[in-house]
Design brief:
This protein is of the alpha+beta class and about 600 residues long. The protein contains 20 helices and 23 strands. Helix 4 crosses helix 5 and helix 4 runs antiparallel to helix 6. One of its GO terms (cellular component) is plasma membrane. It comes from Cryobacterium flavum.
């Protein structure tokens, strides 16, 4: 009690201490108010006065835009087999400005990893050197001291991606990058085309069907921290990516492989400069296979050195067809009614018509009494001239145009060659006759196949079709081509021409090389001189065979062209290819063997 009283009495008796305490309290309160006032002023300045400008600046620092790639559409065969597709690859990126040392836990201890050590680790994962990574960083920073983006590696597979991610380097990132692949290698590579390293279509269907295949990229943003590291879960897609459509072709990839292999083997065996083979559905005009030799693997375009071998000559290169074209002249003569299968002419070795032209056959012979059948069996130029001159030049020109000569087919293939068919008023005396037997004009391999399709299909020419259409994500098909046929010949004339071609198949000197047991076949060989590039002819020949089967109910057309086969420069070069391909086609599609016997037409009179 006495102690408490003493203290109380002391406090009451010391007024100086009391006033000092009150002053300290007052000063403290004033200081607090001053600090609060400063904070309030600064807060108003930040949130009101400078709000707009600071917001703009901060967004640039924390929000990062990134492309979201759409997937390019597939190119598929008629059965849905993928010929060209897209697989996911990845770009490894980094933030150069944030490329600084960082801590990593190793054996329970925090270890500092230098930029040089991190670069070496990245290089080991991506197949580069550490110095190369450091150079990428320094180059980016030299260009922009605040550089926040640079590529480390592009289009790597998932194994490389995971290897880099497992390093847990805070200033490295990744982005999806769809890449083009061709699962079947060189199969149909001549038609597919390819893309540049930047993804730009360069040739073939990739180029011609780009409007269908092309995707639309989207955009997403994400937030990053002060250290430049992406904040997990911060992605926001502002624009969705749209995948491309799928191009559905008429090609049968299994048959395409067989045709390519068969053609390449024969071309190499005969020392050919190049060769083509076309398989066409006789009823629909759909291309089932189009092979070229040499050809290209779109996965390795650089492996095909000659640029001319990276596409399809069947579409883009025309040539004088030679004697396979005689079927068109014969059909025109029969359709117009100026001659019948019984009409006879005298075919000399050399024919000098009144207009001053000079026509001769490939071998010397006495005058021969021939029917139209005999002319085609013997492949007589003079005999065909005697029949062809029964029509006017304009009539023959009109028939040729109706068959599609001089005009690109309906496939829409890039840079397709329509051939050369000059107007009648530009023909000289020799051209007037040469066009009767496949010279003085040029055709593509597709056009020759289309000529035989027209004859096989009772005289109705179908549009040549390579693409069924563009299949959208919901399964609907757009850009479906017109499949309306056009009558070129009467059914009677077409069937009579078919009968003549059957006789050619049976009586030709290469009959043993193209015989297909169990089926009636209509076919014709051809031999044409090749141009020398100087307005004349070289010593080389283009040898060919075109035909269809079964002749009693035509289903399929096969046309083979071999250019300058130096080891066998005759129709014996393509005949075995025709036989092998047509046999495979008939077997694959289970064509019914022929029942009725082939016609027996007189070749002489």
């Amino acid at each position: 009690m006495s102690v408490r009283n003493t203290r109380s009495s002391s406090a009451r008796n010391n007024p100086t201490n009391s006033r000092s305490s009150r002053r300290r309290t007052l000063v403290t309160i004033l200081v607090l108010f001053a600090v609060i006032a400063v904070f309030l002023v600064r807060l108003v300045d930040i949130q009101v006065v400078q709000a707009d400008s600071l917001t703009k600046d901060s967004v640039g620092n924390r929000s990062v835009g990134q492309v979201v790639y759409g997937s390019r559409g597939e190119i598929v065969d008629t059965n849905g087999v993928v010929l060209a597709g897209t697989v996911m690859r990845y770009n490894i990126t980094m933030s150069p400005v944030n490329a600084t040392p960082f801590k990593r836990t190793v054996d329970g201890k925090k270890v500092e990893i230098s930029v040089a050590d991190a670069a070496a680790e990245i290089g080991a994962a991506t197949g580069q050197t550490g110095d190369a990574i450091l150079l990428t960083i320094s180059t980016a920073l030299e260009a922009n001291a605040e550089a926040n983006f640079a590529y480390i590696a592009q289009k790597v597979d998932v194994d490389v991606l995971r290897a880099v991610q497992n390093l847990h380097i805070p200033w490295t990132y990744s982005e999806n990058s769809p890449s083009r692949v061709y699962p079947n290698g060189a199969v149909a590579g001549n038609m597919l085309g390819y893309l540049s390293g930047e993804g730009v279509p360069q040739a073939g269907l990739e180029s011609g069907q780009h409007a269908c295949l092309a995707s639309t990229n989207g955009k997403e943003t994400y937030e990053k921290g002060a250290d430049g590291v992406r904040i997990p879960g911060s992605s926001v897609t502002s624009t969705a990516a749209v995948d491309g459509g799928d191009v559905v072709t008429t090609i049968d990839s299994d048959l395409q492989w067989f045709v390519q292999q068969t053609l390449a083997a024969r071309a190499q065996e005969t020392g050919a400069a190049w060769a083509t083979a076309v398989v066409l559905d006789a009823k629909t005009g759909k291309l089932l296979a189009v092979a070229d030799y040499p050809s290209v693997d779109p996965n390795n375009v650089g492996g095909t050195e000659n640029p001319e071998d990276r596409g399809s000559r069947a579409f883009t290169q025309s040539f004088e067809p030679g004697s396979t074209f005689k079927a068109l002249t014969a059909a025109s003569v029969l359709d117009s009614g100026v001659a019948t299968l019984q009409t006879g002419i005298v075919a000399p070795y050399r024919y000098l018509p009144a207009n001053g032209a000079n026509i001769n056959d490939s071998h010397s012979h006495p005058d021969q009494n021939m029917t139209l059948t005999g002319v085609l069996i013997d492949s007589s130029n003079t005999g065909m001239s005697k029949f062809g001159e029964k029509l006017t030049d304009q009539q023959r020109y009109d028939y040729m145009k109706a068959f599609g000569v001089g005009t690109p087919t309906e496939t829409g293939f890039p840079r397709e060659d329509g051939g050369i068919l000059h107007p009648v008023d530009e023909w000289d005396n020799q051209t007037s006759y040469a066009t009767m037997f496949g010279q003085g004009l040029t055709t593509s391999a597709l056009q020759v196949a289309s000529i035989y399709q027209t004859i096989a299909n009772d005289g109705v020419r179908m549009p040549v079709q390579l693409v069924e259409g563009c299949r959208q994500a919901d399964g609907t098909m757009t850009n479906v081509p017109d499949a309306t046929g056009t009558r070129v010949l009467s059914e009677t004339a077409a069937n009579e021409t078919s009968d003549v071609l059957e006789m050619v198949y049976q009586k030709s000197w290469v009959q043993s090389k193209w015989n297909i047991p169990g089926y009636r076949v209509a076919a014709k060989t051809g031999t044409a001189q090749m141009p020398d590039g100087k307005g004349g002819y070289s010593n080389g020949y283009l040898v060919s065979v075109s035909g269809f089967a079964p002749a009693d109910d035509p289903q399929y057309v096969v046309s083979v062209n071999i250019a300058d086969p130096v080891k066998l420069n005759t129709s014996a070069a393509p005949a075995p290819v025709f036989q092998e391909i047509m046999s495979q086609v008939l077997k694959k599609y289970r064509a019914v063997p022929s029942g009725a016997t082939a016609p027996d037409l007189p070749s002489t009179w």
